[in-house]
Design a protein that fits this description.
By secondary structure, this protein is α+β, with helices and mostly antiparallel strands.
């Protein structure tokens, strides 16, 4: 079976610190560059699951790189290079402590809240009488706070962001403008692939006083996609949509009694389950990019990454 990279512990030249996130390990080089290693860890309900998913990190990194390149005319982004299939090197930014969630359709956690009676999310009023997976009159932005490891992200409104000084009014206006423009570009690119970009999240930071797009973009970990074909028919019949997202992992967990709540146990991730999740991610990659996925060698992943990063830093 293919191997998965779930942990890294590098000591690169000029390394100042390392941050181990839910999925990514980020190495600070001389407070100037970040080396982001996208591991094969998988998280759901803000919990890192016990087994890694082979090729997941490679897929996420390559999808993000593709979309960062395709949107750099909209706003500056942090990417400098991808020296390894699982690594992106970029400029170091001071991140805003919020994630900009943008939604084009009512589904997922927003639908669960709506069904329970909520008519406002993050200060945004929602129309009455909406149904699951219905398109909003226009995309809405529902930010969350950026949680620390093991903590849950929390909804926050524009007014709260400004009141807490998490961004200035001018900064937030630009964050909103970038968010909607990126979502519009992502929506158009998805439609060309026969997909609907349902919702996604963006993270931004500042570098030398300028706002940059950071982290991943339009990956199945940060986004939800529906298949365009059959969407309307399924919506009218109130049938579940065919999705390209990590939602299938959440659904598997929920079906096995796990939603990240205290006292709940993650169900056993057998080799068959792990392999099926890996296969689904490959399907996601090929649909989203329109390219055949080429598997990198997984025999000595950690050593390969170290060599490729050192070669890059030595240039």
């Amino acid at each position: 079976m293919s191997k998965a990279l779930t942990k890294t512990d590098y000591h690169f030249p000029g390394q100042v610190s390392v941050y181990h996130g839910k999925v990514r390990d980020v190495y600070n080089i001389n407070n100037e560059k970040l080396i982001m290693v996208v591991t094969d860890r998988i998280s759901a309900f803000d919990v890192v699951l016990p087994e890694g998913i082979p090729y997941k990190g490679q897929m996420l990194n390559q999808i993000a790189a593709k979309f960062l390149d395709a949107t750099q005319d909209i706003c500056p982004n942090w990417k400098l290079a991808t020296p390894d299939p699982m690594v992106t090197v970029g400029v170091m930014c001071q991140g805003f402590p919020v994630e900009m969630i943008v939604r084009g359709y009512l589904c997922g956690s927003a639908w669960r809240a709506y069904k329970a009676g909520a008519r406002e999310i993050c200060g945004v009023r929602l129309p009455e009488g909406m149904r699951e997976n219905e398109k909003f009159p226009h995309p809405i932005i529902t930010p969350t706070t950026k949680a620390e490891m093991g903590m849950h992200d929390e909804d926050i409104s524009k007014e709260e962001i400004l009141a807490r000084g998490l961004a200035t009014p001018e900064e937030y206006e630009l964050l909103e403008r970038y968010t909607l423009a990126l979502f519009e570009r992502g929506t158009r690119m998805a439609a060309e692939r026969g997909l609907i970009l349902v919702d996604t999240k963006y993270e931004f930071g500042k570098h030398e006083g300028k706002i940059y797009l950071m982290d991943e973009i339009h990956t199945p970990d940060s986004s939800r996609y529906f298949y365009l074909e059959g969407y309307q028919e399924r919506f009218e019949k109130e049938e579940p949509q065919r999705q390209l997202s990590k939602e299938f992992v959440r659904e598997w967990l929920m079906a096995n009694g796990f939603q990240g709540k205290e006292g709940q146990q993650v169900p056993e991730m057998t080799p068959a389950i792990v392999s099926s999740i890996s296969d689904r991610y490959i399907e996601l990659y090929e649909h989203i990019t329109g390219e055949t996925f080429v598997k990198a060698d997984t025999e000595h992943i950690a050593e390969r990454i170290e060599k490729n990063v050192l070669d890059y830093l030595g240039k």
